[in-house]
Amino acid sequence: MTLAATSAIDDAAAEARRAKRRSLRRGLTSFVLLAILWELAGRYVLTNKLFFVPLSDVIEAAARLWSTGELQHHIAVSFTELAAGIAIAIVIGVPFGIISGISRRFRDYSDLLVAALYATPLVAVAPLLVLWLGIGAASKAAVVFLTAVFPILINTSAGIIATEAVLIEVAQSFGGSRFQIIRKVMVPSALPFMLTGMRLAIGRGIVGVVVGEILGSQAGLGYLILVAGQSFDVPNLFVGVVALAIAGISLTFLAQFAEQYATRWRRVVLE
Amino acid sequence: MERLTVTDLSVRFGSLLALDRINLSVHAGEFMVLVGPSGCGKTTLLRVLQGLTRPTEGRVTLNGKPVTGPGQDRGFVFQQDALLPWRTVLANVGFGLELAGKQADGETVHRMIELVGLKGFEHHYPHQLSGGMRQRVNLARALAIEPAILLMDEPFAALDALTRQTMQRELLRICAAAGTTVVFITHQIDEAVYLGDRVGVMSPRPGRLVRILDIDLPRPRPDDVKRSQRFNELTSEIEEIIHSEDERKGGAT
Known about the structure:
The complex is a heterodimer of chains A (about 270) and B (about 250).
Chain A: H1 2-45, H2 55-67, H3 70-102, H4 104-119, H5 126-133, H6 137-161, H7 165-173, H8 178-215, H9 221-230, H10 234-262
Helix pairs in contact in A: 2-10, 3-4, 3-6, 3-8, 3-9, 4-6, 5-6, 6-8, 7-8, 8-9, 8-10, 9-10
Chain B: E1 2-13, E2 16-27, E3 31-35, H1 42-50, E4 57-62, E5 65-66, E6 74-77, H2 89-93, H3 95-99, H4 107-115, H5 131-144, E7 149-153, H6 161-178, E8 182-186, H7 189-195, E9 198-203, E10 208-214, H8 229-248
Parallel strand pairs in B: 3-8, 3-9, 6-7, 7-8
Antiparallel strand pairs in B: 1-2, 1-4, 4-5, 9-10
């Protein structure tokens, strides 16, 4: 049994790896095609450089901004604001999500409120936050926090609620305390949900950073886009947009990787 | 020596009388099986013994001390394997010890894994194991806390017939090796007779303990004991008790 089973697991794992590589190859193909299309459109179709430029111009602009250190600075500023906002959202959202998952009473009080706030596009209050907190990093972190905290809270709560009752009973029957049940059964069981919440939060947070920066800032990718737009500098504007796209993809991939790592225990299935 | 004593135990859920004045005592090292049709309250009884359900009347004592809630002096083997899917075999078996604040990957845990025949699978996850192997982990987890009594709630009900047979044989071997006292619940009469030193027959609505039979089959019990004349006599007797209880109540089942 052992040998056959082990080789079956190995085969399944190898097949999964092949499928993953294939998916990646196809995804990259789309990217290359889009890049070619962009270049051609910029050269032969939308030739007015006040409105559109080919990809090569954007790359050139990016290289120029990189060599002066400007691009790195903008990226660093935006990333710091995003990271700070997400970190606060996790620190607040996860504990409140856990409490909401455990306590019926807390849920009764908070559910409607949380649902309303989750549905409201909270970037709408960004101008207010800039007014309160100024044009520095604090207001952007606050926008990110507001947009990111609810998906984290809601998913954490859903994960805690979804904990299988029989697993809680196992811990109870071994004399586990309430705190042990939360820490050793509910939280690990909810972990994949929490990470999904964080992935969603990152997506929303990026929007929050850019909106915040466009409303009032002195640096960051949103600022780069704003200034470029006001001065009809289309290549620089696209540098900002593309940088955001790349940041979005990388962070989402990172979050996905974390999700997969945290759920590695259910990846290999024999049946 | 009496290990577990149940005195005039009744459980009522609203207007439903689930268990009616159960009296039972289990001796140290004994393998006690409770058999009965579904709805006879046997799982409720086991949950009361574990302290997961509170009795309406009566009491339970373990080694002379009253049972008031769950505790590490009893090991519970669940019907579903109920393993924590994010933990390896090793971490699952050590779970009970970990909750008690004891060393969860020490000699005891490894000894139990070896005892249930899972040596070499310590770092596998539950999803990588077959149903029978998962039940072995479930059993090892309950044994690892070295309980005064093992409570088993139809642990083999979800297994296929061949695996069930193997697991019954394995359970007898493991209990003999560990000197475990067991209360085992099942609705399968042949399983009850094969495993038990004594078999308590329960009847439904309200759940009563109708008779307790001594199973005088010699130990160790090889598989072919199931084809012996005595085995058939005992299973027939239990069948008749359950049947006559049904008729007495006019139950159409």
